[in-house]
Amino acid sequence: MSTGLPLWEVFIRGRRGLSHQHVGSVHASDAEMALRNARDLYTRRGEGVSIWVVPAAQVSASSPDEKEPFFDPAADKTYRHPTFYRIPEGVKNL
Amino acid sequence: MTTPVAQYALQLGDDALILSQRLSEWCAHAPELEEDVALANLALDLLGQARTLLTYAGSLEGRGRSEDDLAFLRTEREFRNVLLVEQPNGDFAMTIARQLYFATYQYELYAALCESTDAELAGLAAKAVKEVAYHRDHAVQWTLRLGDGTEESRRRMQEGVDQLWPYTAELFEADAVALELAGSGAAVDPRTLRPAWEASVAEVIEAATLTMPSGDWQPRGGRAGKHTEAFGLLLGEMQALHRQFPGAAW
Predict the structure, then answer these.
(1) What NCBIfam families would the database entry show (chain A) (predicted)?
(2) Domain count, chain B
(3) What is the pTM assigned to this prediction?
(4) What whole-number distance in Å separates Cα of residue B117 and Cα of residue B5?
(5) ipTM strictly over 0.90?
(6) In what order do the strands lie in the sheet with A21-27?
(7) Do A2 and B32 touch (CB under 8 A)?
(8) Which of A82, B39, B57, B139 has its CA 20 to 30 A from that of B210?
């Protein structure tokens, strides 16, 4: 399988009201073809109502080397988690 | 004694079945992994249409033949598909040209058949018209990109539309079965589909910077069971398993 074609990241929205989720990537010559390839690869079983494709080259990603300064400081700050509230009785879906 | 509707369903079912078989030959051979999946998807859509149509034809003719009997146990001369769908895949551009011609035809056909007085045919058409709208879009996108692509892709795309052009005449032939049924509103008179088909195809070919093919040679005979040389090999491959292991299931 050759492939000189650019890579595209695919995001699918499963239902109305949900946000688009990253599901994988496809090769395609341009955005329109990427949408079609994504449709064929990722929505075969009725998974989605909307597709986004983004050139993979345009994604800026955090580097594994920066893992400690990026993520470790959050580890011991339990006060950022909403666990100190008492949930009033009768409140559903919280 | 077979009915006209059974014969008509057989014609349309054979078209879908044979094109499905041809497209599935691309499986694991397409230019890109993504295209492999795309072509297999088209083939599966067509196979679904073929199953509905052949099952319906089998039930109407009253000889107790199932979809499998019709697909795997008929001989070459008993198939009623048009010659276009049995033409070999050639290169990718040739396959796209065949798709462009046939999906555009199928789209016009099914769109009209949604109004059929035969509930089964109308139901099938309503479902299938959405599928073939996508098949046509797939072919259009590729025709534009190959035609308006590199010098080499353009040459191949032009060759594809040129070589297959003669086989398009048969799609719109005044077929006796279709004409009889068109009178009662059950089928579509194939001749009425040509203007919209030609306008649609011409628009794509022009946008793809290609030249619209022309020529007087118009091979025909598929609807009467007279097929081209390559068809026997296709059937041989399609039917080999069922003939070696009758009733095989998995």
Answers:
(1) PA_CoA_Oxy2
(2) 1
(3) 0.90
(4) 11
(5) no
(6) A21-27, A7-13, A50-55
(7) yes
(8) B39
